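Instructor's aside before we start: the two examples that follow are unrelated to each other. I chose them only because their records fit on one page, so don't look for a connection. First example below.
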Amino acid sequence: MENLPLNLTRGLLATSPIGVILFLMVGLRWGAARAGPAGWLTAFIVGFLFFGATPELLAYSQLKGLLLSLFVLYIIWMALLLYNVVNEAGAIDVISEGISGLTGDKTLQLLILGWVFSAFLQGVAGFGVPIAVVAPLLLGLGFEPVVAVVAPAIGHSWSVTFGDIASSFNALIAATGLSGLELAPWSAFFLGVACFGCGLSSVHACQGRRALRHSLPALLIIGAVMASVQYLLATRGLWNLAGFVAGMAGLVAAFGVTRLAPYRGQKSAPLKASKMGLGVAVSAYLLLIVMVTAAELWPPLHRLLNQVVITVHFPQVETTLGWVTEAGVGRKISLFGHAGALLAYASILAYFTYRRAGLYRRGAASTILSQTARSAIPSTIGIASMVGMAMIMDHTGMTIILAQGLSRLVGQAFPFLSPFIGLLGAFMTGSNTNSNVVFAPLQKSTAQLIGVAILVILGAQTTGGSLGSMLAPAKIIVGCSTAGLEGREGLVLRKTIGYGLAITALVGGLAWLITR
């Protein structure tokens, strides 16, 4: 694979698709369904005219993008289905009242759901599920729609690397050829720092500076528990369980914090009379947790569900400028073991649970399906166009041009930039896994070239990729879909981008100090 000559013009052209997306979503507040196609068209034109993309290359890149889009959309469609199943039964209101009964402190409610529970869900599910599930719950507690999406978007991002059975961390291992025991300490350290940053940022973003002081005891206690548990498990070879168990430990710690003096005195709203008990109301989410945990951690069931896998082999393609994309397999989709399939199973079981309890009106099934289909359309357009854009950029060398340009621009300050490269990869593809696959080898090579600690750089890379989850339009779309914010994803991105860059800068600063 040849390197493309790097110059200012080529660097600016490579930046243009992302620049268009940011300008339209952050500057003009366009929704993803409008901004995504504009970014895709920019990448298509620039790739064809200036980066030597051939019709064959563009066609294969879009077929690969279609496969990745289906992987993501499978989750979005089924997350929307689960939400509508729960909402149509009236369970969202009951769950919200139950959390109010646990604590009437709005800041603690925000932390428990947006920071702790979303991290737990990331541990058991993955792509976008935490935002899709938590946003409606926060809405039910009376939080504004933008806040309901921003809190879990920021709050869950620190847990992405070791979440979903550490899929992103395993990608880091595969891409670098280094062992997990070598990579785990610095990765877990930086992610532990990010854990506190995400908790603080979610409170500040949603409730302002005044709430920070009040939330500090809860943040320190819960954050210390989650970061420590994740570090201990990851560095002892149990990285596949690190995110899941850290989230579970955080939930236990959060329950204890509600009994502390600063929060114990808060008055809870009285529960409204309801024929639905809290246990029945939360049954959909309990079913989801049991389903995902069993599917991932019980080997016989895991093997059974993952017997049917859609796999597509793509040939090698090359631009007229000599940039080669090697032959390989696109994103594999396990038809019955995918996170979207597990959401579907939970949705079906929850529907029959609520129906047996007499919680649905006549025609509920039709209403659920029509609402799901209607809200899925803008999400589908946004995801498909942005993933297609990312694939064009990857297959024409634009992605690598961006990373190389940034690394050469900063020279010996490269360690500070390292997590930003990881963040860029996650922003473009919506996946820390993809970010690690694309950029970890580049980061490793650059660290060797300039003589800095490789393991520190790679830890910063995957941490930046995790934090990129709060900015990735593909994930923001997921949350907005279940919070009634379709077409207003730009508002959420405007709210999260400053915090994402600030926490990433903190990680970069630490990486720079450590490597000195």
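Example two begins here.
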Amino acid sequence: MSDAPNTSPLAKWVVLRWARRASQVLFLALFLACIFLTVAATGGGFDPSSSQGLLFPTEVFLYFDPFAALLVTLATWSLHGALALSLIVLVSGLFLGRAFCGWVCPMGTLNHACSEVSPGLKGSRRIRANQTRPYQRIKYFILAGALASAALGSAVGGLLDPLCLLTRGLSLTILPWLDYGTSNALEAATTSGSLALQHAADRAYDAVGGVLLYQRGAAISGGFLAALLFIAALVGNRAIPRLWCRGVCPLGALLGLFGRFGMLSLRQNEDRCTSCGQCDLSCSGAASPRPGQKWQRAECDLCLNCVASCPEDALTLGLAGRTSAHCVDTPDLGRRAIVASVATGAVLVPALRTGSASSIEGRPDPECIRPPGALTEEAFLSSCIRCGQCMKACPNGALHPAFHEAGLEGLWTPVLVPRLGYCEPSCTLCTQVCPTGALRPLLEAHKTGKDGAPMVRLGTAFIERGRCLPWAMGTPCIVCEEFCPVTPKAITFEQIDQVVEGKTAALSRPYVFPSRCNGCGACEYVCPVHDRAAIRVSASGQSRDPRSSLLLDDRPDKAL
């Protein structure tokens, strides 16, 4: 019995293992709190007069994202102030390797949870799935390509950032679906005729109003692909545990490269090992912890599962000395594969920009209407990491992920879709939550021009007379002018008498004053022509890009 393992160290590692699970739950809860804090602050009815902005920086997780910070720094040759916090995570990687992936990352926690409940990965099959495989090198090639694209001025790599992916997935997929389902259920209970159900629906509405019910519905323009990627990342765990973390995540690859200098190392005692497979069964990083195998330092997320599950105490974690013969610091990627990845990322930028909103003689796509405070298109695409924070914060649900409006390079960047929502003139929440400076922080006075500076213009409204009710059909309608929020109004009327079906009707034909229009989209949002609105906002005249300016004066443009 002298060779029996010491149970005291084993108990210590078991405690640490549960501490890791508690840490995962805590940080996932904090991340979800940030999502719902934004929803509660902007939903359930929006009162512009009382909006003083968000009291808590709900984008705080992205400030600690070193991959996002590196993308923006390479693309813009500047570091947005708040992103400097990501250096904390990066420096911690020098000491703890990929501990962020195993202890903090909320996307990693969801992947881990989905892997644990996968019914098809049990016993020997899970052991084989948890062993180091060649596919785990893919994330390093993705990282190399993303950084090469960033060096050429495009932050398109943000599409695969795990924190951006999770924010988009929750804000643009899960929450709208929950909102849609909850709204329909409460409406059905309210109209059921049962007094008990009606009272229950009223209490439920008071409980979830402004959290699950935030008046945006399930309509997310261009959000299908974003939802598809997020769901695929979770469903992939049914085939390979933590597939996204092991094979795709560029943030994990970055931390893995820094982890090669980690101060902690796994010590393997081959004499104690009985090859029971418990370490491989529980390894979350597929780092090959079993004695007799090469431990992959760059893949280990410091989950401590192998140490805690080993019944023979054959594995311990301690300070690293000189590189051990049983340790592989970095995977063998191959010089040619790295060069090919960098070249692909470099070629990707001009390829994606072909036909984009800013490539055709400097003319913007008419549907590429950016949020207030947006930089010029080229600078915007260099800074935007497609995190979806601005879309999540918009109280009117006006911002949606671009699909075709901004070209391939602008996929999932925010655009204003006036038919689904309009930009509240006094609201600047989207500029407050942008973590990279792609949207410059604005004050209400500056956005509306109350400080004496020109107001921020998102575009210009145009009237299609062939679809406008007073112009084309002799039907009275003054909705667009009534709902125009600017002062003085950007829409005015010409009063005429017109004979319609043998009767004289007094009609008010609308005109647009281009110099007064801020492109908020309120007129298009309320236009009663149900399919394609008779008045539509175009990106022309946006103040962020002088190349798209119109000839603006105080005369209504009667040629529109």
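Residues 7-28+57-152+241-320 form one domain.
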